[in-house]
Design a protein that fits this description.
The chain is an all-alpha fold. The chain has two domains: 56 residues; 111 residues, no CATH class. It is built from six helices and no strands.
């Protein structure tokens, strides 16, 4: 991206499937090494997790593309512009952005997904906390507890922030395209 308008073709590592996979693998490797696993074990699990995330990200982008009619390669750019409130000048791109924003808002308003995701994350963090405390590793258990609570709070805050930004962008697109809010 070049500048604030978001129209450039700048190099965005996480927009590609390999960038997302590399990020996930490095994050998993660091987490594995901090959890006192062996370097080989942490490395193998990082490669497996990175591969899983690459496939998952690719499938998710294709599903969004089919649902919204936006090209797979344009999804990261349009999504980022929508979150930042950067509206395209081209009417066709605005229509694509509007379909994408409405689809994302629809997914965010489906609370079943959020409850399931938060419930599973809480279960993972709680189980690991208990496991570490039971095995006599109180510091690791405390780290899981604090890290888990911090992660859940950060996810919840980011979800609310993204929902607010997308709603604002949807309103602005409605006014720009039709002269009236949706």
């Amino acid at each position: 991206m070049s500048g604030k308008e978001g129209t450039g073709k700048g190099w965005r590592v996480l927009d590609s499937w390999w960038g997302a996979a590399l990020f996930a693998a490095v994050l998993w490797l660091v987490f594995g090494l901090l959890s006192h696993r062996g370097a080989a074990s942490a490395g193998v699990s990082a490669v497996v997790y990175g591969g899983f995330m690459a496939v998952s990200a690719g499938m998710g982008r294709r599903r969004v593309s089919r649902a919204t009619g936006v090209e797979v390669d344009d999804l990261p750019r349009l999504s980022r512009q929508a979150r930042r409130g950067e509206l395209p000048q081209d009417p066709e791109q605005r229509r694509q952005m509007r379909r994408l924003v409405r689809w994302q808002l629809g997914r965010m308003h489906d609370m079943r997904r959020a409850v399931l995701a938060f419930g599973l994350l809480f279960l993972v963090f709680a189980a690991n906390t208990v496991l570490w405390f039971v095995t006599g590793h109180g510091v690791a258990g405390l780290c899981w507890l604090v890290g888990g609570l911090a992660m859940l709070a950060l996810i919840w805050w980011n979800r609310r922030r993204t929902e607010s930004r997308l709603t604002r962008t949807d309103r602005r697109l409605s006014v720009l395209d039709h002269g009236q809010p949706a």
